[in-house]
Amino acid sequence: MKHYETLLQKQDGHVLTIVLNRPDAGNALNTQMLTEVVDLFASLYVDPSDVRCIVLTGAGERIFCAGGDLKERKGMTEEAWRRQHALTEQMMRHLQECPIPVIAAVNGAAFGGGCELAVAVDFAYASETARFALTEVTLGIIPGAGGTQNLPRACGIRRAKEIALTGLPFTAQEALEWGVVNKVCAPDDLFAQTLETAQRIANNAPIAVRQARKSLNMATQSDLSSGYRFELESYYRTIPTQDRLEGVLAFNEKRRPQFKGI
What we know:
Elements: E1 7-12, E2 15-20, H1 31-46, E3 53-58, E4 63-65, H2 70-73, H3 78-97, E5 102-106, E6 109-111, H4 113-120, E7 123-127, E8 131-133, H5 147-155, H6 157-166, E9 170-171, H7 172-178, E10 183-185, H8 190-203, H9 206-218, H10 224-236, H11 242-252
Parallel strand pairs: 2-3, 3-5, 4-6, 5-7, 6-8, 7-10
Antiparallel strand pairs: 1-2, 8-9
């Protein structure tokens, strides 16, 4: 497992936990962290190895991710800003194309790019103490890490406009009611509950999970007829797998299947 300066990694079975690890800076996305996130997800795209689900969280108890590092950006030239933002674009594309399901455990404030990360992953659980906001318009910019695209898909266009155009924060409970997160947990239970869900996903047939995820993602990008054709193509790719045979056999033998991803 590769060492990074701003990221921590821990693997538990088939679940990889990635921790944004700049707690003294609110786990903000500086150039170093962006570079390392891009490198890590690029490597997972090339070789997922035995990782079947990813949990993304932040170090500490107060902040998941404060977004872009504004201290680093102070006085940054236009050209330097564009070069740094290119890393953000790469990060978001790697998240979109990641073959492994990603769940966020939002352990605290998720502002700006942190909120965008929370809605870019497959789904998120949040601590009761978490708060969310897209604050970019208060800084003279707009969300640029997929926020204007992923947030409406999570909570609807009218709510997304209210969030993005006001820049006002909202609570974990509001995030749950609006569809931004799937579950709100007590702070001490957040990681355990997220990990439990991740392990349940990881215990399922990896090829089937991957194909289902691809098909579900297509649901927001195409009409019903085209989406169903994509679903059928995804479905037929599971038929030749040994995991399909194992799943049916295990059901009939009344035992837990042992999926190998083949």
